[in-house]
């Protein structure tokens, strides 16, 4: 297949970026086209039907299910409060009556004479959608949400944990290949999105959590440290719902790996700016990668390709990153694209390319094992 | 869809729309038999920005067209039909697992009985079962409701109760599902289809509970009596709803359905079809496995009973980290004949998970990946054996003769000694650089016993042939026998255990003019050349307590068929155990790697090191 390479992750200083912010079910949109919104502003809200509590009254009151409807003191659609008598048996000659008091508040949804089951639905659950991207509303989807646009610096990570987070951007490392240790995290980083260089240690993660850091963006992590931090081994890369006290975005991957210099330089250049991050990663059909979005404010940003990046396909001179051992993490340019498949040291036949690194060394690598560096 | 007369069909075009790749094959009448002649593939185009599955189909077919030198698509992107001497095809068929395949949730009253039968029906129809809700699943009702609310199935299947039995429990299940209002995957416009296949007396009551917001279909009870399953009606309903509701909402499928000459089938359902057809035609027991990036499907037909399981989180890329989480690093490393740094390996595994399309470049990486595959396959087969059982909850009449028999209901029906054919497919098996590697991955993971023929479906053609079997069984079988499977050879492995180096069995092999005989001791593995098309008469004289199919210590004489690898004599014992001490285990694996010549380059390195 001609497309047998991995499309690269986008790292760009300036681009026009749009986000669609939609409710999971229909509700009310609180903004209009042209409005300027802040990242933490609620742009749409709604109420989800409340949780339901099933209650088997036939069992509770030791009576046949068919008798339950006539023993009910409340009918379907009526509200009930905790402690309120919900049903009362007829007893014997009007004596020895047993009653059942509601344990939860809600509205009675149904009463079954077949099973004796009563369903109580709790109060509606509020759902809010935040703007996430500070910018201008360019479209409103009636009853669902809106589209927000802004000029931003945009960095796509390879893997993350935790959901959306916000804060000012702070450098915790001075170089792209510096390890992010606990000593580099200070109390004044509370509520900030901090930028590391290479691997983040477990001690640094714990320190960041105790300080109240909003998010960490760094090059890599040891799988062992991630497991310890999460409290369980990660089986599949479907993340975003973790509640671990902070959001983590890795720009490169697992292991002792430095953040790409270009990514670090870009983040460093935006130090102090308000940013939004999302660690949500889904590596299945409908791929989602984590991201760091740093709006430029009202300043206009135009799409512009930076030197050392490409928006084309895999072609001569295209900058690429190797994404598998034995050259994992190295960056170079494509210097040959043989059309015929070649036999690899593993014995497999695959389509390959030649990558030349900054040292001048050229190596043959399967096309599937590089990703484009896209701007 | 007006199927052509089978006698007039000369050119057949078939596609399988997978999650990432759409594969097209061309089948033509060559002389008097049908042969698969060309294949092509292209990325699947279900998701944005394309959002139209037919684009990927046309791209894949265009590749076939170029290779075949036969025009199959018009410039407007339409398939040309019927075939002439130089262009077009007579029929077009397709399967699909795009967008994550068919995802279902099933419910039953008792987890081990009706809920399990419902799960079997859903899996057999080609679905991924997201969860099983049952009255006794140890979750409290509000937890079950929460789960129903969280998941977004394509279809739900409710079962429960035998016909004429109590109605209360199954209605109770329906009463939980209705207010939970599970959200379908394809947005708020979509009405969630629910199939009811439980106690027929409860059907009107269930209809009364499940009303608004659902499309309820009532079919015959899938467990009308405890002693018998009746899965056909539920499976048919799943297929119909898959087409009417699920496929119709997937981008471009309405168009694709208009093109096909037979209903589109879920990919695994089609694979099940062809395996059942083969097992019944040849009167054999078959196990098939398809190991993918995210999931591993295992299919089996034993004594005519078909079972399928999907191990949803055992795979070679997206789910590779889960294989480790389930089996542990030590179990993976026991298959590797050299030392590796564990910390680095953990990171490597995670890097493969987050960049799933990469391939091993070095031999070391390949050996490691094939070690992971052995564990993924082994775990998937363990799960399959636990699921493919006799019906649970069946009362058994016992006589005095059964006094000492411990057999109960719910025993696995998988018996490796009775297994005749083991078929592997999926990237790591199909694309292994050497066929020997594929054969050994299958043997190490499945541990076949007695005489077992090994094969691989090199280009994963079984789905195409499964759907073709419905339209043109003859063409389907001819292609299956001639082009679909690559026979690797036969594995001969007795059941029994003993100390390494002790005698296990004596053998004699007669083929053509040559005869070879010898003794195998425990721990031995030997490859005897036997080419594809060749057969040999193999006589095995097992030691006491060792069974090769006729009982412990009894002589067995069978005809074995050759293949691209040959005849593999395996005296490592069953169950297969690798010494736990790393040094001893590594030496044993190294010996097996050398005996089968699995990695010729590695053998040189290992020799130099020692």
Q: What would you note in describing this structure?
A:
The complex is a heterodimer of chains A (375) and B (610). With 375 residues, chain A is mainly β. Chain A folds into three domains: 11-46 and 150-295, 3-Layer(bba) Sandwich (Glucose Oxidase, domain 1); 52-121, Beta Barrel (OB fold (Dihydrolipoamide Acetyltransferase, E2P)); 319-372, no CATH class. Chain A is built from five helices and 28 strands. Chain B is of the alpha/beta class. In chain B, 35% of the residues lie in helices and 24% in strands. Chain B contains 18 helices and 22 strands. In chain B, strand 12 and strand 13 form a beta hairpin. The longest helix of chain B has 25 residues, at 363-387. Chains A and B meet through strand 5, strand 10, helix 4 and strand 25 of A and strand 3, helix 3, helix 4, helix 9 and helix 11 of B.
In short:
The complex is a heterodimer of chains A (375) and B (610). Chain A is mainly β.
Spell out the blueprint of helices and strands.
The complex is a heterodimer of chains A (375) and B (610).
Chain A: E1 11-22, E2 28-29, E3 36-37, E4 42-48, E5 52-56, H1 57-60, H2 68-71, E6 79-80, E7 85-88, E8 99-101, E9 106-111, E10 117-121, E11 125-130, E12 135-141, E13 145-156, E14 159-161, E15 164-171, E16 193-195, E17 199-200, H3 202-211, E18 215-221, H4 223-230, E19 247-254, H5 261-269, E20 274-278, E21 291-295, E22 319-322, E23 331-336, E24 342-343, E25 349-350, E26 352-357, E27 362-366, E28 370-372
Parallel strand pairs in A: 15-16, 16-18, 17-18, 18-19
Antiparallel strand pairs in A: 1-13, 2-4, 3-12, 4-11, 5-10, 6-9, 7-8, 9-10, 12-13, 13-21, 14-19, 15-20, 20-21, 22-23, 22-28, 23-26, 24-25, 26-27
Chain B: E1 11-17, E2 21-30, E3 33-43, H1 53-68, E4 91-96, E5 102-108, H2 114-124, E6 127-134, H3 141-150, E7 155-158, H4 168-180, E8 192-196, H5 203-209, E9 214-218, H6 232-249, H7 253-259, E10 265-266, H8 267-282, E11 286-291, E12 296-302, E13 305-311, H9 320-327, H10 329-333, H11 342-354, H12 363-387, E14 421-425, H13 427-430, H14 435-446, E15 450-457, H15 462-471, H16 473-484, E16 485-493, E17 503-511, E18 514-521, E19 524-528, E20 535-542, E21 556-561, E22 566-571, H17 582-595, H18 600-609
Parallel strand pairs in B: 1-4, 4-10, 5-6, 5-7, 7-8, 8-9, 11-14, 14-15, 16-22
Antiparallel strand pairs in B: 1-2, 2-3, 11-12, 12-13, 15-16, 17-18, 17-20, 19-22, 20-21
